[in-house]
Design goal:
By secondary structure, this protein is α/β, with parallel strands linked by helices. The protein is 42% helix and 19% strand. The chain has helices at 37-54, 77-99, 109-116, 125-140, 161-171, and strands at residues 2-8, 12-19, 22-30, 59-63, 103-107.
């Protein structure tokens, strides 16, 4: 089965392509930051559709959009806007899956991270991203970038966490990869 695994945002999509359990290719597509978020969502449609066609994809896997911010009933306007934007991305992916008659599954972020061993204990977002990159580099002998600023803060914009997350999302569905974090 040929699977397209996606880590989505409205600025970057981490992509991994699998033929059964073999990682065929992993990369990311970035949107033009000058565009509004709706235009960025639209800008991802064509490249993703070309990938679906080129690799003859049978199955699409992506993160589910959380319906509620855990433990927070009084979400900020920014958190609500993020959910709307991620929902638009997911809707675009579901439409592509329907158009191309492809099976689709969305896995909640906490579920796939727990399956792969990254959600152990309370960790901030940056720590989880660094763990993901290190785990993927170890498991697949890759050299995904994990960059830090001069002040020692993790830099999402210069790192390859989107690619790592797309790979680990797929791996979280496979018993052989579960709980590999030491």
């Amino acid at each position: 089965m040929k699977t397209l695994s996606l880590d989505m945002s409205t600025t970057c999509v981490g992509i991994s392509i699998w033929n059964d359990d073999e990682l065929v290719k992993a990369f990311k597509i970035k949107a033009d930051k000058k565009l509004g978020w709706e235009e960025r969502v639209r800008s991802f449609r064509k490249p993703l559709e070309l990938i679906i066609i080129k690799y003859n994809i049978d199955f699409i896997l992506c993160e589910a959009v959380p319906l509620v911010s855990k433990g927070r009933i009084d979400m900020t306007a920014q958190a609500k806007a993020t959910f709307v934007k991620l929902g638009a991305m997911r809707g675009m992916i579901i439409s592509l899956a329907d158009i191309h008659n492809i099976e689709f599954q969305a896995i909640p972020p906490n579920t796939w991270r727990k399956n792969i061993g990254i959600l152990q204990g309370k960790k901030d977002r940056a720590t989880k991203k660094v763990m993901a990159i290190k785990l993927v580099n170890k498991l697949f002998d890759l050299k995904l970038k994990c960059e830090f600023t001069k002040n020692g803060k993790y830099s999402e914009t210069k790192s390859d966490d989107d690619i790592a997350d797309s790979i680990l999302l797929y791996c979280s569905t496979r018993e052989e990869y579960r709980q590999k974090v030491g």
